[in-house]
Every structure is written in structure tokens, then in C-alpha cells.
Design brief:
Elements: E1 4-9, H1 16-40, H2 45-60, H3 70-98, E2 106-110, H4 116-124, E3 130-135, H5 138-149, H6 154-157, E4 160-163, E5 174-180, H7 191-200, E6 202-211, H8 214-229, E7 233-236, E8 256-261, H9 264-270, E9 276-287, E10 297-300, E11 305-307, E12 310-317, E13 320-327, H10 332-338, E14 345-347, E15 351-352
Parallel strand pairs: 1-13, 2-3, 2-5, 3-4, 5-6
Antiparallel strand pairs: 1-15, 6-9, 7-9, 8-9, 10-12, 10-14, 11-12, 12-13
């Protein structure tokens, strides 16, 4: 796909106070999650072996492993919860930035696993009070309950856990509906119906998060089409209903990275040497609001390219990929662009062709 020629970019920063406060809450919740995992999970050799198998299956994009016993549930929690929390927190933060008036009181977390997505949601939206988590695997529910009890957060402590197959049981309505890494566990033929059921349960906003692989992106794009047909307003990562310019590409797809610090437990579970990792993810935020927030943002795709005195960004804008260049001569615009990272947004009214 051909890209447009570089153009001049004017960037606008987001609210530094609200964003900083949200990031502080996310950091605190992340530390609490790591502490809860360390206290609840004993990494025996058998659990470590199971964790290695789970990691290998996830990297290969294989079908999800059955988590029907405590050993596999512990392995899953130790390996996947920190990364799921980090990715979900990034997706939720984008949604909160674009819908600053949205203050959900109730959460429905479908395919909740051990609750990582709910931990992230409560960090981003302090207005949340009532949490309902739906998970089919009893040992995973047990782990999730134990972690919630250790969180110190009354919302997680008092969360309602429902052991059920999310696609076969009735879903209660909620202001915020989330599904983290759920669609990839479903047969392709039922994904459309699953997204329709999630939307039917949504009173305000639905957030879907999937792996940042090409397959994960394709599931998100398919869900996006279903939601638009159902009347949803796409809010993030790219607002509006324009077709994704990367749809159908065999070599490029829209995804993002969430960087997270590995705890000692996480490093041992993954037999990892680095103290951090990047979690690739794809996501979608859609809302029932009838009036989109203005100005609508555009999203930086991939890592910005930096040269002395110049920053080049790739922007998804109005159904196309646009390369934009900011130089030191642009003053404050350059200083803002210089600080931007993969996944950040710029504002519609600040782009001019040149």
C-alpha cells in the first residue's frame, strides 16, 4: 500500500494531570498484583514445566491449553497475568483518554482468567464499584479469588465470580464490558456471535484485547466490523468508522507494545534473564455514545523514527497511513513529538499538509 508524502504535524499533548494520576494508579495496582502472585503461587518444578509449555504455546499461536487443575492455573497466572494486566491497562488508558466523561460503575469481565483485566480496569477507572467476572475453569477462578482477596482493593475482594462458559451463559448488563484474550480461544465460526453478545451486554463501553499477532489483529478487525454494524462508535485505537488501511495486508498489521517489569516470580516462571518484557497486543474500544469526543485523535503506528533535529511519525488518519515529519524548527510541536511513543495519539486539528 502506498503511503502519502510526509506532511507537517502539529501535536497536542493529553491532560498531564489526569494521565499522570492514572499511570500512578496503574503502577500501584501492578505492584500489588506482583505481590499477590508472589504470595499465592509456589513455583514448583512441575508448575515451572507447565509455565514453559504455556509460554511456548502462546508464542506459537497454538490453541489454548486446558487449565483444569491447580498446577496449570498457577502456571497460567504466573506467566500471563502480568502481561495481560499491562496490555489491558494500555488499552483502557487509551479509552479513558478519548472518553474523559465516561465513569463506569459496573464491570463485566468475560473470559476473565484469574482477573488481570479487572485489576487493570479498576486502576484506570476508580469509579468502578461492582465487578462481575465470568470464567469457565474452576481452578483459575480459585486462583483469581485468592489474588483478589490479597489485593487490598474492596472492589476486587468483593468481586462476583461466575464459573460459566461465557458463550453459553446469560451475560448481565454492565457499564463497561471487557474481554481480554478471549476471542482467540473461540472457534472462528462463533466469534461474530460472541462479539454480538458482548455488545448486547454493554451499557456504555466494550473493550477487546487480543495478542499483537497478525491473527490477533484480524480478530480485532472482524470484531470492529461486527460492532460498527451493531451501531457502536469506535473510540480507539483509531476513532470513527473508516476502514483500517492495513486490513488485508499479509505483512503489516496494527498492534502495540506494553512494556512491563518482570517480578522475580515472573522471571523464574519464564526462565528469563531480562528484568522486563514487551507484550505485543491489538485492541478495540467501542462505545454507545452518540456524540464523539472532539478533537478526535490519530494514532502513532510503530516506533517513531528519530534523527538529529527531526522526528518522523506514522499516523493512521482517515483510512490511510500518513508519514508526518516534525523538525526542531517547529518548537513546541517538535518537543511534544520527540516525547511520543508507539501508540500515542495526535489531534485531528493539528495536522496540516505541507
Amino acid at each position: 500500500m502506498a503511503e502519502r508524502q510526509p506532511s507537517k504535524l502539529h501535536v497536542a499533548g493529553s491532560n498531564p494531570v489526569s494521565r499522570s494520576t492514572s499511570h500512578d494508579r496503574i503502577a500501584i495496582s501492578g505492584r500489588q498484583l506482583r505481590a499477590a502472585l508472589a504470595g499465592a503461587i509456589r513455583l514448583t518444578p512441575a508448575v515451572a514445566d507447565e509455565a514453559a509449555a504455556l509460554s511456548a504455546a502462546y508464542r506459537a499461536g497454538a490453541a489454548p491449553r486446558h487449565l483444569g487443575d491447580l498446577r496449570s492455573a498457577d502456571a497460567y497466572a504466573s506467566v500471563r497475568m502480568p502481561a495481560t494486566f499491562a496490555a489491558a491497562a494500555k488499552a483502557f488508558t487509551a479509552g479513558a483518554d478519548r472518553l474523559p466523561g465516561f465513569a463506569p460503575r459496573s464491570l463485566l469481565d468475560v473470559g476473565a482468567g484469574a482477573g488481570a483485566t479487572s485489576w487493570a480496569a479498576t486502576a484506570v477507572w476508580p469509579s468502578l464499584r461492582a465487578l462481575t467476572l465470568v470464567e469457565r475453569e474452576a481452578p483459575v477462578v480459585d486462583v483469581g479469588r485468592a489474588l483478589g482477596a490479597a489485593s487490598g482493593d474492596p472492589r476486587l475482594v468483593g468481586a462476583t465470580w461466575r464459573r460459566a462458559d461465557a458463550m453459553d451463559s446469560a451475560l448481565p448488563a454492565a457499564d463497561l464490558v471487557t474481554a481480554g484474550y478471549l476471542l482467540g480461544e473461540l472457534a472462528p465460526g462463533v466469534i461474530e456471535g460472541a462479539v454480538e453478545r458482548l455488545w448486547a451486554a454493554t451499557r456504555g463501553v466494550v473493550v477487546l484485547v487480543e495478542p499483537g499477532s497478525h491473527a490477533g489483529y484480524e480478530r480485532i478487525i472482524a470484531a470492529r466490523s461486527v460492532l460498527i454494524r451493531a451501531g457502536a462508535h469506535v473510540t480507539a485505537p483509531c476513532p470513527g468508522d473508516e476502514p483500517c488501511p492495513l486490513a488485508g495486508s499479509a505483512t503489516a498489521w496494527c498492534h502495540f507494545l506494553a512494556r512491563l517489569d518482570r517480578s522475580p516470580l515472573h522471571r523464574r516462571a519464564k526462565a528469563a534473564e531480562r528484568s522486563w518484557e514487551d507484550e505485543p497486543f491489538a485492541y478495540l474500544v467501542a462505545a454507545r455514545v452518540t456524540t464523539p469526543v472532539e478533537p478526535l485523535p490519530r494514532v502513532v503506528l510503530g516506533r517513531p523514527r528519530r534523527r538529529p533535529g527531526v522526528v518522523e511519525l506514522r499516523i493512521c488518519a482517515d483510512g490511510r497511513i500518513e508519514a508526518v515529519v516534525v523538525s526542531r524548527r517547529d518548537g513546541e510541536r517538535y518537543r511534544s513529538a520527540r516525547d511520543m511513543t508507539w501508540g500515542d495519539a495526535v489531534r485531528l486539528g493539528f495536522v496540516t499538509n505541507g
